[in-house]
Amino acid sequence: MSAPFEERSGVVPCGTPWGRWYQTLEEVFIEVRVPPGTRAKDVRCSLQSRHIALSVRGQEVLQGKLFDSTITDEGTWTLEDRKLIRIVLMKTNRDAGNCWTSLLENEYAADPWVQDQMQRKLTLERFQRENPGFDFSGAEISGNYSKGGPDFSSLAK
């Protein structure tokens, strides 16, 4: 079995003071570096449809209104190797045109080059889903790919 498209094509991370975040068509991933030896009981994480709050050992790390809505019941967080918190949020809008430009409404925005690369990746991911027999993981895309790229669904097959 081959790896999912997003794993083969790599991620386009947006660096932050506490770690990084990145996205696929369906999910937003947040990776937060924490002091080595952190235990789960040291972590307080609240995931709501449009809001996130994370504190470690009583210190606020991340809090605010998310860029777009998520499915609350499907959000998860894990502590890995007692030094990294990984949060996975499921996007409500899973269209290729829904490329988050920042993690929170007014914070942790991707710079223009990273935003461009994120949009390209989501467009390629959309093409892969529409054409499951082809491998787009090594493809380059140019031209009109903003808002998810061109719509070929109306073309006769």
From TrEMBL:
GO cellular component entries: centrosome; cytoplasm; kinetochore; spindle pole
Domain CS: 14-104
InterPro entries in the cross-refs: CS_dom, HSP20-like_chaperone, NudC_fam, p23_NUDCD2
SUPFAM superfamilies, alphabetized: HSP20-like chaperones
Pfam families, per database record: CS (PF04969)
GO molecular function: unfolded protein binding
Gene3D superfamilies: 2.60.40.790, Single helix bin (1.20.5.740)
Assembly, per entry: Interacts with LIS1.
Protein name: NudC domain-containing protein 2
Gene expressing this chain: NUDCD2
